What we know:
Its EC number is 5.2.1.8. By secondary structure, the protein is mainly beta. The protein has 4 helices and 16 strands.
Amino acid sequence: MKRTRTLIPVALVAALLLSGCAAGGTTKDASGKECLPSGEASNAVKVSGEVGKDLKLTSKTPVKSKESQRTVMEEGKGDLPKSTESINVAMTIFSGVDGKVIQQAPESAVPVAKDGLSAWAYDAFRCAIPGQEIALVTPVKEVTGGQDPANAGLEGVKNTDSLVMVMKFGKIAKAEGTEKTAETCDKLKPRDKKYPEVDLGDGKSEPKITIPKCIEPPKDLEIKVLKEGKGATIKEGDKVMTNYVGVDWNGAVRFDGNWTATGVEFDTTKGALIEGFTAAMVGQKIGSIVQVTVPPEQGYKDGMTRTFVLELVSEAK
């Protein structure tokens, strides 16, 4: 997953026929800060279909805004998520230029910690409550940071355009991994090459990765096929439904993950994912399960080596 913090979270499916409406519901987040306001562009959004699955934009295009706008399309009920919690979300992303679907994102829990999300995503999530559905209109440059949108998997738009995102929020839960963090090591021990160890379990739940604390990390990218699939070979630029779980190298503290029946869509276009993910996916067969240990310079460039297990579920349709 590209995570210049979390770029595009993935989702929770809900069926509704929707029409844009004025902002409502809570006006402040859990810290007391005012929620992102609505605007003319977000208030005008109308959609039909199922969020994260077959949602269509039915309102007029082009849609454009110089700053992010957030409109509550359907009220929710319940508490606001805290920084130590995650909230389920389904999302459909449209081009503001012509209304074409860029991504339908199925169910996933997304941690709402401020330091784990891009600014635009945090503004969308910090006032979310279960059952709420929102329209977010945001400039493309807010998502890409000014980089080429195509490298982030955003085809058909420029940084001067806007994106329309419709999100449906679900249950709130304790964010996995918030109870513990990787320790700082005064001295590193030599690595036993049997680590990381991976237990694939029953194949339905995410694998368990074991790495002892305070052992030397590898300097180079390491890729290991744990199970070879029988499907087509993945080429650069292919979109693949993928399950993944990742841990920090030191002690295998869970970093991120999504493991479902369908997986989430990953785009192997250069620049759309961290370099280590693309290298681990391209050239593998659909159905494969791949272990990859990613040094910081090929990952999130935050000084942390991480190990991931990827299941290449199917070709994205």
